[in-house]
Amino acid sequence: MSRVVEDRRIDEAGVSRKEGARALRGQVIRVRKARMADVAAMHSMINHYAEKQLMLPKAHLQLYETLRDYSVAVEAGDDSRVLGCGSLHLYWEDLAEIRAVAVLPGIAHKGIGSRVVEALIEEGRSYGLEQIFVFTYVPAFFSRFGFVQVEHRSMPLKVFNECFHCPKFNTCDELAMVLHL
Ligand SMILES: CC(C)(COP(=O)(O)OP(=O)(O)OC[C@H]1O[C@@H](n2cnc3c(N)ncnc32)[C@H](O)[C@@H]1OP(=O)(O)O)[C@@H](O)C(=O)NCCC(=O)NCCS
After folding, report:
1. Whose CA is nearest to atom 7 of ligand 1?
2. Please, which pLDDT band fits residue 161 given cuts at 50, 70 and 90?
3. Residue 175, pLDDT above cutoff 50
4. pLDDT confidence of 6, banded at 50, 70, 90?
5. 3-class SS at 133?
6. C-alpha closest to that of 92 among 177, 28, 155, 141
7. Hey, whose CA ends up nearest to atom 16 of ligand 1?
8. Is the dihedral of CA 107, 41, 86, 167 positive or negative?
9. CATH class of 17-180
10. Average pLDDT, the chain
11. How many beta carbons lie within 10 A of that of residue 175, not counting itself?
12. Which of 15-24, 31-40, 148-157 has the lowest mean pLDDT?
C-alpha cells in the first residue's frame, strides 16, 4: 500500500492546525546551518517519523557525519529551539538530493517545512547545481517548489547509493521527484 500522505489537516502527532498555531504564535522563523547542539532534536524529529515509516531512520553517527548537509529552522528569538530540519546532499557536479525534511510534530502546516526546502534549494543554486531530486511520500508538498515526478529508473544509478542500505530497497514505494534549477 502506498504511504503517500493525503491528510493535510492533522499532522503526524495528531495535533490540529489551531493548536500548532498557538505553539508558534508571534514567532519569527529563520533557517540556519545545523550545529552539533541541534543533533539531539534532529534525531528525535526524524526518528519520530521513521517509526511511522514516513522517512528513513537516522543514527546519531549518520547525523554527525553529514551535519554539514543539514539546515534547521529555528525561532529568531530562541535560536536553540529546532522546529524543522532538512539536508542537501551533493552527488555530482550538477546534482544533489534533498533528504530528511521534517518538522517538529505539532507545528505542521505553518510554513516551516517550506522555509527549510526553500533554503536548501537556494543552497543548491549557490553551488551552481542543475538538478535537485527527492524521494518522498509527500509529492504535493514538493511539487509546490517545482519538483516533478519522474520514473525511478530515469534517475542516474549513483543516486541509489543510500538506497542500498534501506530495508525497502526492493520494495521502494517512495516517489522520485526532480527540480531543474
Ligand atoms: C512534509 C512536511 C515536511 C511539511 O512541512 P510543513 O511545515 O507542515 O509544510 P508547510 O506548512 O510548509 O506546507 C505548505 C504546503 O505544502 C503542502 N503540504 C504540506 N504537508 C503536506 C502533506 N503531508 N501532504 C500534502 N501536502 C502537504 C500543503 O499544500 C501545504 O499548504 P497548507 O498547509 O495550506 O495545506 C512535514 O509535514 C513533516 O515533517 N512530515 C513528516 C516527515 C516527512 O514526510 N518528510 C518528508 C520527507 S521527504
Report:
1. 113
2. confident
3. yes
4. very low
5. strand
6. 155
7. 141
8. negative
9. alpha beta
10. 85
11. 19
12. 15-24
Structural domain boundaries in the chain: 17-180
Residue position matching grid coordinates 544533489: 96
User: What are the φ/ψ torsions at residue 95 (nearest 5 degrees)?
Assistant: -140, 135
Taking a C-beta distance cutoff of 8 angstroms, is the pair 73, 23 a contact? no
Query: How many angstroms separate the alpha carbon of residue 103 from the centre of ligand 1?
Result: 8
**pTM (two decimals):** 0.87
Q: Is 128 exposed, middle or buried (0-12, 13-18, 19+ CB in 10 A)?
A: exposed
Q: Cell 543548491, residue? A: 124
Beta-carbon contacts of 126 under 8 Å, excluding residues fewer than 6 positions away, are none
Determine the Cα–Cα distance for residues 165 and 97; give it in Å rounded to an integer.
16
Does 85 contact ligand 1 (Cβ within 6 A)?
A: no
Per-residue cell: 85: 530540519
- Cβ neighbours of 42 (radius 10 Å): 23
